[in-house]
């Protein structure tokens, strides 16, 4: 690898996930300079062309332009690492050996492997992504759950999942909590987690799934466990030890 300091761009629309990736990278590769961060694909493309980083970490699903579209536009200009919550995309790319991937939530173990491979590749031209991109796009046909049909008293209501702050298991039902109120559905937490966009909704307790966009901040309780403060709700959500590692780098 050359003596020139390696540089990187991070493109991820969720600020907490962007910060987590930046922290993990700093821990695993202190010499790497993250020269820019983007919150959508259009910004990512402009910053890549302006700053010409060695590596672009691209979230596959971003507003304006997806990570796949950005990768197509910058192909050959830098090394690409896809950031995704969807393992099937990652495995496709990884099996081809053309690009690396990081699964959300970002773990130190995965970052360490990615960093090692990137160090070996930096002195070579970026890989040809055409085949990999075509395969990933072919798999992107089934989107996550967008609406929740919930009971509100004696009536039914369709709730956009974007409005849900969190889901909480209660007896045979699951409570759907929004800024305006609460409703009940019969889906289990496990069923919901499998259907929701796992880039946006994280399970933080055996019976709780939270919308990352509804989080104001994460504090620590007296046991040093993460405690979620919501933007428009007064209650605080406890993160169990099983899921505490998700917030370790935040």
Structure explained in plain terms:
The protein is of the alpha/beta class and 250 residues long. The chain has two domains: 133 residues, Response regulator (Rossmann fold); 101 residues, OB fold (Dihydrolipoamide Acetyltransferase, E2P) (Beta Barrel), CATH 2.40.50.1020. Helices cover 29% and strands 31% of the residues. The chain contains seven helices and 15 strands. Strands 2-1-3-4-5 form a five-stranded parallel beta sheet, with helices on both faces. Strands 10-9-8-12-11 form a five-stranded antiparallel beta sheet, with no helix packed on it. Strands 13-14-15 form a three-stranded antiparallel beta sheet, with no helix packed on it. Strand 1, helix 1 and strand 2 form a beta-alpha-beta unit. The longest helix is centred in the N-terminal third of the chain and has 14 residues. The protein is globular and about 65 Å long. The chain starts with 6 loop residues before the first strand and ends in a 12-residue tail after the last strand. The model has no long low-confidence stretch (mean pLDDT 86).
Defining traits:
7 helices; OB fold (Dihydrolipoamide Acetyltransferase, E2P); Rossmann fold; globular; 250 residues; 5-stranded antiparallel beta sheet; alpha/beta
CATH topology of the largest domain: Rossmann fold
Helix count equals 7
Provide the helix percentage: 25-40%
How many strand units?
Answer: 15
Low-confidence region ranges: none
Measured between the Cα atoms of the first and last residue, the distance is 31 Å
Strand content: 25-35%
SSE order, one letter for each helix or strand: EHEHEHEHEHHEEEEEHEEEEE
Shape: globular
Secondary-structure-based class equals: alpha/beta
Strand order of the largest sheet: 2-1-3-4-5
Described by strand count, sense and barrel closure, the largest sheet is: 5 strands, parallel
CATH superfamily of the largest domain: Response regulator
